[in-house]
Amino acid sequence: MMAEKLVLFDIDGTLLSAGRAARESVLAALSEVYGWKHANGNSHDFSGKTDPQIVRELVEKDVGRGRCEELLELALERYLEEFSRRLTPEAVVAKPGAVELVGALAETPGVSLGLLTGNLERGARMKLQPLSLNPRFPFGAFGSDSEDRYLLPAIAVERARAHCGREFAGKDVVVVGDSIHDVLCGRSLGVRSVAVATGPTTADRLAEQGPDVLLASFAEVGAAMEAILG
Ligand SMILES: [Mg+2]
């Protein structure tokens, strides 16, 4: 019998693209809450980072650590409000094969699915909603659990234990994502890492981080299933 597997998916660049609504919402919230306006907000690399980390990276240097900290909760709340207004269902585009892959994994005996994402949980759920993917992911670890992406895999594994009533460890945990941080963040737990080059990070750059498997996309669902389940 195949070992039980816990498969943890990143969202942006991995399952879907949500267009520019998230970036625009962050910038609007930062402008309102901190009075912060900078051109580099349009080019700053958000990939593989948590939402609180993105806010800090953008504003801390300009507004100071104390003020950044003091208003962080408010900024994140305003971001979510902006995002719920700006995100249209049509803006959410599934990556090729992603919905089919998640469906096939969810139907596979012994496979449990969770999220591992820097999004605040409410933002994550908003992005997955138009693709009807929320029921596939009953638990996860989010940017609302920790600002440090590298602490999230352990949180996800603990949630999986609570939800599924079993332990997952080592290569029975699979982290699937499009950024170098997705590849690196599970390393301390010795997880299986599957990188997919459907986000802003090139396949070459992902390959440099030594994932267990590197996929161009999930377009070939059968091959992606094999890559993930090993
Ligand atoms: Mg991503």
Walk me through this protein's architecture.
The chain has helices at residues 21-34, 51-63, 65-86, 98-106, 121-128, 152-164, 180-185, 203-208, 221-229, and strands at residues 5-9, 16-17, 93-94, 111-116, 140-141, 173-177, 192-196, 213-215. The model has no long low-confidence stretch (mean pLDDT 95). Strand 6 (173-177), helix 7 (180-185) and strand 7 form a beta-alpha-beta unit. The protein is of the alpha/beta class and 230 residues long. Helix 4 packs across helix 9. The strands form 2 sheets. A 6-stranded parallel beta sheet has the order 5-4-1-6-7-8, sandwiched between helices. The chain has a two-stranded antiparallel ribbon with strand order 2-3. The structure holds magnesium ion (MG). Magnesium ion (MG) binds at residues 10, 12-14, 47-48, 177-179, 199.
Number of domains: 2
Structural class: alpha/beta
Distance between the termini: 14 Å
Mean pLDDT: 95
Look up the CATH topology of the largest domain.
Answer: Rossmann fold
| Form type | globular
Largest sheet report = 6 strands, parallel
So what's the CATH class of the largest domain?
Alpha Beta
CATH superfamily label of the largest domain: HAD superfamily/HAD-like
Integer-rounded radius of gyration:
17 Å
Pick out the low-confidence regions. Answer: none
Question: Helix coverage percent of residues?
Answer: 40-55%
Oligomerization: single chain
Distinct bound molecules: magnesium ion
Number of helices: 9
